[in-house]
Design goal:
4 copies of one chain form a homotetramer.
Chain A lengths: L1 E4 L5 H13 L3 E6 L4 E6 L2 H5 L9 E5 L19 E3 L2 E3 L5 E5 L6 H14 L3 E3 L17 H14 L3 E5 L4 H8 L2 E4 L7 H9 L4 E4 L6 H13 L5 E5 L17 H8 L4 E3 L1 H5 L2 H13 L4 E5 L17 H18 L6
């Protein structure tokens, strides 16, 4: 922690600052410059950070120096982690493709989509049973019946399955049927849900909130990790900006930034970032080229009739072509992968 | 709904568009311009909106014309609503001041703060028992013990109380002790929680998500309203932008925009928007001048020692001065209040 | 300047960092914490800031501590400045109202608007002769003829005039006719233009760029100040965010932030921030309540027929009512004005 | 243009709307829905767009349907354009690499950098002589001497050169020495400069403003095109968002969006987007994977000593490795290139 004093802060104010730092169990290191006096804290920064510095007379500002996340950080675990689910690896130099429909609508559409994505090279099947919808009047998913169908499709086509949990009660339910629990972007700071999936002992796919910084995403992961679950997969899915030509702005830079900061696997979701199927393939290629460990894509055999987000679903043929390109690009970039 | 066809769309494509509209139970109105053909839908727009238009051959884009929220809209209820809680009015030309500490830390600090804000003119007491914190290592609130203290303080000083619920299980608990349930910014799109407070039969204070549009805030309110609860108070509390001089950017324009769009009362939270106590008074004055029905402010008798958000808490004397200014400004602007 | 070393940085790397600081003519102050080593620089920070710290082995990050603007800062000149133009004061506790049409369209419309705003209490007349337009096909202003008319209207109604300069050649031209030169938002970082108006010896109204931080606005002002012109008026006019309900997001917090940081007068433009005339009055009240020294508003006697930005122009009667409210609010808040 | 009337708009108001449209030389097409009445305009939309619709009684909102840019649009010229400069092609399926130092500092550093980028496979040499700097106290470039050196280096190593012009007077000067004129992000809406480079008869590299939408970038290009210059290259270089982990947010989606909207070649600048050299290679790979026609990268033989933006400069060996990857990725994606 660095405490910058106001120009002209008094001796008494400096003394008070030092006393607060020492009362919190840290040591203070005073550095008097020509224009400004700076006080560095040595010790556990978190204890000093809570001290409401802007209310302390004579203080201009206070800034944390160490990272607020420990378990998620490369400092603690320098080597990239690998998560294995039903024989499929995520992280560690492989490219993992998760694909399937946005929502489980009925048996036939799900099984058609599952067959198609398996054939095209997907390793994990996605499908939503509990959908968070902006409007209360939209289709909200099939619930447990959807989970049951998803599990059956996964078994039939030999793919572990990932599905979203929206509230605490969904967690034990989803654990019965799914291999990976997804926490959606709108729940990235739903701390009770994070703690609950942290206790569930199942890998967690954590999506970045649409206005969350990289640091906040890592702090959300820290909630899951601190609850005892070390199997967290991070997912960039587009952030909210002023640009309206796309539904969200795909923050492709977050991929290499996260890979440098954390040992957790990093994937991305080009479908939600784009919001339009025509952009999904270029964004998918971009994310893999930037060094992601995998991606999650929406695929539907008849997007025109999809009950949810059909606008961004790829048809199976476009998806199959895209996967081929992604493998070729991954072969170029995987030598740079930070392990 | 307006469907804009691509330049050069074929007759067959136009026919397919018209058929889709009619199959959804609406009528199509085709308008051939010099450069573009546009198809208008007449009927229930929501049914046509779900049709994944960007996947339909020949379609350039599709746009909704009517508002997606009905119950929250002025169209349904043109007159501004008034919510009454324990004798205190919110909306309808009065200025409602909610104040108190960020978090209930202990009995003494809460009662001191309650006494101070009551004396300064606050009508409603705030205090958190369940705090959503960005880091898992920060103080998370006293839980039910906090609620009990809050209720006691409210009774002693004659103020109804408002407190935040973070997850479903908090709702029945909070209903036992609190008069108004608050849904925080990070939960604005926690749809299960919205539905739950919608069923609780208690007024709801709904904070705008930090990257939510005005339209999304109204759709979140629609979830509560659609669950049968008509007592929703909207709260602007700062949005996330590129500017880092303040913690968030207080979107003061949202106040008149919301007042025009909805009959629900609109308040604001200058404390969280600013993140620094020195800015709270100017922002409080700005929000009242812009036409808000009230505000919610953090007050602490010893901000330096606060366990949560002390940086943005007002001391009682500054708060008392501010309330005087707010009343004077409200007297100037209340004649413009949209009823 | 604070240089934070990477955990595990070597002695040799630390030595290299210290040598770079000393070679730049500063002193280094090394502080070894439990987790991190921090090096503070004592001396002229600007010389150390240029050293490309992220390329230096062992360095995690480097951060400037002092403000990069000197002349604009309150540190240099703690007392709020007052600019006087043709008998009208800007800053120092008065409320200055600048008003008039967006663009000078013709003699009659300009004189009608000038008469109306004078009568309602405006002190300075605005009007554009060189308009920056997003599309090359839009009306770009009358040029010198517009300036001539503006000067004539200002003289007739006893108001100094302000007009925008868009490029270097406009500066000497505008100096012949106008009392204040405006640099528009899109030119806030047109450094050649800033230097040119800095040499012109005429007060400058500098609008904040639509994605400029407060710090960048002050650095832009520093260009004008460094060129020898101390008469700079800063103007908040809305920033670009994700919200589309308003044309821009009026950053009302920037007003108290700027008032604390700089001695320069701070005004605002509610017309461009809002983009819709219905929002102009509430935003005008908010900005004055937040402590601005004045505002600049677009007024047109027949907005429906305006050639530019008619959507955001106030009719004279609405403007007159608004000015009355602003004066009443200013009377409440001026006691807080930071002098 | 679509004019949406307010619910309950009167017959007289509808009539007035229709008259305004007809007075502007267009035809009105009235469509009465169950909830709303919509009026479509048939004819030259630009003439109707200027009519200040929000001031017209009974109008809820008005929306443009056709694109406001004509010359830049694919509608006018469906085939992707190719620009040829000194034997180097930009667009049309090739991958063009522009590289060199941020700023021309002196002869030796420039020639060393030019030799290195040529050897690594760059086709065009970049170098700044007139630098736009946020602070007036930073190094602003060598001016004409820098241009002279740049030209000499380009000739020696057989590369056309690109350099930035910051103000009108730089245009004829730069035309004497450079093959491509660059308009920087901060000048993207400097309309006088756009018109001037439009008249200069030299290819123009137009960078996206840091808060400009894709539509605004195309309108800025339209200024150059409308002045008679058809050789415009668009460049994505990162936009301003709330994320602070990178200097800007590289909007990789803008590449496929622009490729679909316009026939102009689209390149990108990973150096400015990232702001840190470690991120440049991943972003470069992402941009090429997304379908860009080329990129412009900063390379410096001794970044630690660079006078400007050394933090984001690649060393020659990293650059050479990166170019190899880019070529391999381009070979994968060029089959998708929209011609």
């Amino acid at each position: 922690m660095i405490i910058v004093l106001k120009p002209g802060a008094s001796e008494a104010q400096l003394k008070h600052v030092v006393e607060r730092i020492e009362a919190a169990g840290c040591r203070a290191h005073v550095s008097c410059g020509e224009e400004l006096t700076i006080v560095g804290c040595i010790g556990d920064e978190a204890r000093v950070e809570r001290l409401n510095w802007s209310t302390v007379p004579g203080v201009e500002r206070a800034e944390r120096i160490t990272k607020p996340y420990k378990l998620a950080s490369r400092q603690l675990q320098p080597k990239a982690g690998v998560i294995e689910v039903g024989g499929v690896k995520i992280g560690g130099g492989t490219l993992t493709v998760m694909a399937g429909p946005c929502t489980v609508e009925d048996r036939k559409m799900l099984f058609d989509a599952a067959a198609a994505v398996k054939k095209a090279g997907a390793g994990i099947l996605r499908g939503g049973a509990f959908k968070p919808r902006t409007s209360p009047y939209d289709f909200q998913g099939l619930g447990e019946e959807g989970l049951r169908l998803l599990q059956e499709a996964g078994r039939k086509y030999g793919m572990p399955v990932v599905t979203e949990v929206r509230t605490l009660a969904h967690v034990p339910l989803a654990c019965r049927y799914a291999d990976i629990l997804q926490v959606g972007a709108r729940n990235m700071q739903n701390y009770d849900l994070l703690t609950e999936v942290g206790r569930a002992g199942r890998p967690v796919l954590l999506k970045r909130g649409l206005s969350a910084t990289v640091k906040e995403l890592l702090l959300a992961a820290e909630y899951v990790l601190a609850a005892g679950n070390r199997q967290v997969i991070l997912c960039e899915r587009g952030i909210r900006t002023f640009e309206t030509a796309t539904r969200f702005t795909f923050d492709v830079s977050a991929i290499p930034v996260l890979k440098a900061e954390t040992h957790l696997p990093v994937i991305f979701d080009p479908s939600h970032a784009a919001g339009q199927w025509r952009l999904v393939a270029p964004l998918a290629r971009a994310g893999v080229a930037a060094g992601a460990d995998g991606l999650i894509v929406e695929v539907h055999c008849d997007p025109e009739e999809a009950k949810c987000d059909g606008d961004q679903a790829l048809r199976p043929d476009v998806f199959a072509d895209t996967v081929k390109d992604l493998k070729a690009i991954h072969a170029v970039v995987c030598k740079h992968a930070r392990r």
